Amino acid sequence: MSRKKLDSIEESTSKPSSRPTLRTVAAEAGVAVTTVSRALADDPRIAEATRKRIAEVAHTLGYVPNRAAQRLRTGRTKVISLLLNTRHEFLSFTSEFLGGMSEELAGTGYAINITADSLADDRLEAIRHIRRHSLADAIVFTRTECFDDRVRYLLEHDFPFATHGRTDFMTPHPFVDFDNEAFVRMAVERLVQKGRKHICIVMPNERYTFGQHLRFGARQAAISSGVKVTIPEDVDLDSEPDEIAAMLRTLHAGPEAPDGYICVGEVMALITLAYLNDMGLTPGCEVDVVAKRASPISNHFRPRIETIDEDLRATGRAMAKVLLARISGAPTDEMQVLLKPEGPFSVSG
Amino acid sequence: MSRKKLDSIEESTSKPSSRPTLRTVAAEAGVAVTTVSRALADDPRIAEATRKRIAEVAHTLGYVPNRAAQRLRTGRTKVISLLLNTRHEFLSFTSEFLGGMSEELAGTGYAINITADSLADDRLEAIRHIRRHSLADAIVFTRTECFDDRVRYLLEHDFPFATHGRTDFMTPHPFVDFDNEAFVRMAVERLVQKGRKHICIVMPNERYTFGQHLRFGARQAAISSGVKVTIPEDVDLDSEPDEIAAMLRTLHAGPEAPDGYICVGEVMALITLAYLNDMGLTPGCEVDVVAKRASPISNHFRPRIETIDEDLRATGRAMAKVLLARISGAPTDEMQVLLKPEGPFSVSG
DNA sequence: TTTTTTTGTTGTAACGTTTTAAATTCCCGG
DNA sequence: CCGGGAATTTAAAACGTTACAACAAAAAAA
Fold first, then answer.
1. Model's pTM, two decimal places?
2. Cα–Cα dist A184/A180, whole Å
């Protein structure tokens, strides 16, 4: 433990108790600042003995690295920006997804930064802002469209990102998506099992990519099962419940009234159930309903309905993994995750 | 516009197109770095003419300040940390509250940073971490308890924060709360108007401060209206729906079955409605239900119930204001906001 | 032994701000 | 025409890190 030139470094006993820095630790351990920096970063150039000693000193001194300084020096923010729709979102999407991401990010030093889009009239504005000010190392957002301008922008500028949902761009990019095609096939199959002949799918219009996947799955299922499948055209994520109800009413008054409903999301399920109730139709009797369940609250819907699960917490976790991979420069094809639906379940609670 | 000693500052035409810094702007405008810094911060020491000129140069150069550098220099993070419960939270709390905060924070340069508590077994750990690493200028969290250890910790360390919900500490601190006392009084009054004689309040136990306020309001309402008010003891925010249903069943089987229900929150409402449905009881007929509505989704519940509103978006906005005030050191008594319930409304859609 | 390589360690220079103290200019009364 | 205070502007010193180039010492090769 012999130290050379200990005095050359100012002892800094003057300042009483401001937070210890690399210098403080270096002085205490009798080494250079660089050495401490490297030791704490597990740089192989540092001898094991020194590394251990420095780690110990740093710990007893209660050293904690200054994020601002690291960020200034390295240019990395250790922040992931999540663009959030706080209106018209699936009921529990925000909580569950956020929870999942947070879980996965714990311990990595990454923080989640929220930008709620309520403010940005121009959707791109938020993203431009984040890039220009280097507010994050990566961006993630939802409700992806087939040729999403945000995706185009981020691809063009080679800024790390991942989307919830696929796009139709030629250039591949990181994403996490739910297999909506499989979902709708399973749902149709289940309703057919129950003897239903005309199935209505309550879902957003084709503006979003997942809408297209649903349509595609619906077409497939219709062909292979032989039942009639109807997709009302004018429903949107932002549609007022009244509009949706009106649309369902029109459909029901038509020549062939649907006897099976598939609801893509909890809000859609609630609206559909309310509509059926208002019409005096009871799921399980005259009609059947299968809905996408994204959180335990679907269990409390009455009358009981059948559900097929999208695990949003798992989605969040997968998203975090994908983002971290993208940041550290993994190949794109390893960053495309498609999650499978689980079910159908007959809700029991 | 005569410039002296222009050459003394390196023209830096060497680097091609990295982001402009204060130095770049200073060189271009023919002034010192300090002057630019001050000009952009609207420091009164800078002459109006210079300020204007610098602003212009900065704009055409596309200058954008480096947050990391500012943060390192000033010690301020421009971040507000939100501790979030992603499990068992009121259905739409996260989205709405977050949206509100985000709205209010837009343009202030402050970012919202999420820490989902799923990971922190020790609730204090997340807060300690934020403080130790100076990850935020202020912290906000929910589900406040009467003598909340997080509040105690933050008060002790004089770290800026605000809570959603009050506490019973002597030392006043910033908060935004909903007037649950008024809520329950209104709800009871409404049920009494409808001729109900025995009211059951489905709500979390007294662990949280707002539970106490509800109890207090309930007692007042019971006395002034003369009806019987029952509060089941064992319900908690984390209770399984089954437990709650079991509890309601026991109560219903007792000597006096309730004929009115007050639900504090959307999840509680869903559970109660499911229970009533399972029991063959119909709100509006044998019983009546009044629930707290925190988002438009309550409108879709069937059978229809009456609601009293808590505006979570407004809560978020108020919270942001309070936090900003706290950060800039306003007196505490100006940072205590109590929001009033609105209603009751008979849901129509 | 001398030369080369390997292994650890060290100074020093940024990164882009803000702040402190000092320097310059300006304006006005003496 | 000069001295003095206000009004502006400036240079230089941090803030705490990481990265680059250099260096010493020990180990291996010649």
1. 0.90
2. 6
